[in-house]
Amino acid sequence: MSDHNTRSIFEEILLSLDIPESAYEKAEARYKDLGEWFDREESLCSPFSPHIYPQGSFRLGTVVRPVTGPLEYDLDLGCRLRFGITKFTHTQEQLKNLVGADLEAYRKARQIESALEEKNRCWRLPYKEEVRFHIDAVPSIPEDDAIKASLKEAMIKTGSVKALAESVTSLAGAITDKRSISSGLATNGGSVIPRDSLCGSNRV
Hints:
Elements: H1 3-17, H2 21-39, E1 50-55, H3 56-60, E2 73-81, H4 92-109, E3 117-118, E4 123-127, E5 133-142, H5 145-157, H6 162-169, E6 173-175, E7 191-192
Parallel strand pairs: 2-5
Antiparallel strand pairs: 1-2, 3-4, 4-5, 5-6, 6-7
Helix pairs in contact: 5-6
């Protein structure tokens, strides 16, 4: 097979996998609308300075069409409550339910028929529109200073410049994980660095 034919085949494959612009536009509109909803004075999360931000493949612009199964795109969002909640004031369950209550109120207000689904580390909100996709919203709070220091040290030991390690780990957060939720004080459901600052992977 000639180089020209090989190149043409790869171009056709890439075109078939690429996500349509309408999907990006719809997803962007949804996450911005969700951010405004959490910022409302009536929002349960509002007193804790919620920050809604895209992460994962949508944030990086690397989304592709699903190869198998239904044609449904995945939009990963972080929901960081930046002030007023720590591992010593709330359990993981309380944190997750707090975010979930605002998501459920949003679903009802926007008349989204699909039910809100609880996953291990996030809440999933499916949209059944002309462009099918679902939002995976991961609740989190800022990580403890001691764990941030440990993450910074680990980055420096693996070759990162100190200034970069400090900048990146300052954004580290603790997420919830249903598999480790207990009735006591919130434990570290998993220390993460938001994917808007460093690429990573948080499985739902």
